[in-house]
Amino acid sequence: MTPTLSLRTRIGAVALAAAVLAALAVVYTVRATDRAQPGAAASGVTLANTPGLYARTAEGTVAAVHGDRRKDTGLTCRRFYAAGTSAVCLTTRPGIPPRSEAIVLDRDLRPRRTVTFGGTPNRARVSPSGRMVSWTVFVSGDSYAGNAFSTRSGILDTKTGYLIKNVETLQLTLGGRRYSASDVNYWGITFARDDNRFYATVSTRGKTYLVEGDLNAWTARTLRENVECPSLSPDGTRLAYKKRVRQGSSDPWRLHVLDLKTMQDTPLAETRSVDDQAAWLDGATLAYALPGRGRGTSDIWSVPADGTGTPVRVARDASSPSINAS
Amino acid sequence: MYLAAGRGGPAPAPAPSAPARQARTRVGSTVVALGAVSLVTDISSEMVTAVLPLYLVLGLGLNPLQFGFLDGLYNGVTAFVRLAGGHLADRRGRHKLVAGCGYALSAVCKLGLLAAGGSTAALTAALAADRIGKGVRTAPRDALITLSCAERDLGRAFGVHRAMDTTGALLGPLAAFALLWLTADAYDAVFVVSFCLALFAVLLLYAFVPGRTPGAPSNSRAPKLRSVFRLPADRAFRRILVTATLLGLVSVGDGFLYLVLQQRLDLDTAYFPLLPLGSAAVYLLLAVPVGRIADRTGRRVPYLLGHAALLGAYLALCSPATGWPLTIGVLLLLGAFYAATDGVLMALGGPVVPADRRAAGLALLQSGQAVGRLLASVLFGAAWTLWSMHTALALAAAALTLALLTACRLLPARPTEPR
């Protein structure tokens, strides 16, 4: 034990160790800094001139994707979605603490409005017309349980400029009864064609529910249990969503499609656990991200929306798919 | 949640010397060394805590909601591990060794998190092991503090330690965010730097904390586990244990209070991480002065007044006050609450536990308080869900008032003063 060494020796030894550890920390940090890649150069690709699939690439930029060919937009986003006349790009900005931004873009991908908030970007959606924009972020430090996480979802009406930073003030009806609780969390908003009706997931007391919301009335009611990250089909009749099929944290979800008229549920041919808000490529096909080969990477896959067929890989090293129809 | 997060963690060096110099007697070098260890360790662990959500979501593409359910479990495990760590340290008279193992385990976990990659099972294991490390080291470390200084200086000693500890907690998130900024989101760099700091803290402990404390009887007859559970048979200890648990049971976690604050003020999510830093800063500033007052007036006074500050925070949140005055008021009161209760409880309870069972006795106190607070948060959440935020707050305030009145009677005046 230490008493055999003089104080001086101990100080010397600790100082030496400190120097070695500091050197290790500095060298590692500097090398990590060098690793950061510069963003891709803009190629002039915009929603206005390039239809088709858009996705986030491994470099963190958004590109128009055709198989293995990518045309970079020069935008750096954590999550991207385009529909109708708008697109939304969720980014993080470094700082103390770091912040997130939702940048609303027009069809030329020029920023029209930027909303800043805390949290970590998770989901982004634009209504079919392009008028309503929504996002979900993860927030920590927002829960009584210490390190537990919660979600925050916001909605921006790009026509009126009206911004709802946190949709938790919605008048919620759960199982037919008015419900309010401190642990209510919303995520994964998806809009209908009328720019008023929307669907989302609400969670409370450890359960998740599908809610149908009315923006003007500012109400929401639960339709069904165990529905996360809904995504409304282009014709507005079906919802693709992830359903929890296993408890615990390994492979918990499976993609399903819910027929809103019959409330019939169809599991899709994708049997792997999908943690994404799926995007409709057309009226019959869904796209979503799954973990790729490397750590933190993901590939985009597609699968028929009626439970038939098999999953097909659409793009490697890409995530956050959305389709620019026209 | 200071306690749930194992606020017991260690902190670093420079702050304590100033108050020590003015004092009649100097704060022992062991206390300063342990403070330094806590400071460095807290920088390390708070760095990881601060970036973990970003790392899970953006670095690994995982869903952090998958990890949320673990917190309750951890708290239970931590209470058990704390007792085990305390008992083990007492049995062998090896407080330093057991505490060191706890620190070392947490240090290794920083690399474990990195090595776990995207595997949720491995990440969960690394996070759990980190908590276990925290649980193991807390009681032996606090026992070392009580054994290394005179009983009449205990309040100040804990004040110095907790001030250093909190300094680390304050610096950790700032360091982590700065590092992310610098490296353009290289999360692995944060983990590596955190590991280097944690390892450095272990070395500090090894080099500057004496292995066998003079006060610790290196007893030939190791205390049996049974004798630990007989500790509450002692009247003075029982009263403190019951008081700590009772007050814990009505102390809604600060996380919940921040949530109330956010709802009352419709606060921007970007400011959430700054709220705990605000109360930590107050805690840091008040820890030493409150500790000194505790030594002079008896520890019961600040301990009870601290809970009165918490009551003040409840009432402020119920009041019509808004905006910055409310935020600042609540953060001040919360900081004062922690400064007057966290280390002070150890200084209050330490002297009534026989030296050969000191760590286990302190672990019992910490666990009683922690379990109480956990229950308090669950009950508060239930009341909020069932009725409303205001009802829940009013109930909490009423319960705390009752508990405080009971505590005034339970805790005899000057129970632990030097004869």
TrEMBL record, chain A:
UniProt cross-references to Pfam families, sorted A to Z: PD40
Positions of region (Disordered): 301-326
Name the record gives this protein: WD40-like Beta Propeller Repeat
Organism: Streptomyces indicus
Automatic annotation (TrEMBL), chain B:
Domain Major facilitator superfamily (MFS) profile: 30-415
Membrane topology term: Multi-pass membrane protein
Xref: CDD domains: MFS_MJ1317_like
Region named Disordered: 1-22
TM regions (residue ranges): 166-184, 190-209, 240-259, 271-291, 303-322, 328-349, 370-387, 393-411
Gene Ontology CC entries for this record: plasma membrane
GO molecular function: transmembrane transporter activity
Pfam families membership: MFS_1
Main location: membrane
Cellular localisation: Cell membrane
Taxonomic superkingdom: Bacteria
Annotated keywords: Membrane, Transmembrane, Transmembrane helix
The keyword Nucleotide-binding appears for this protein: no
Protein name: Sugar phosphate permease
Native source species: Streptomyces indicus
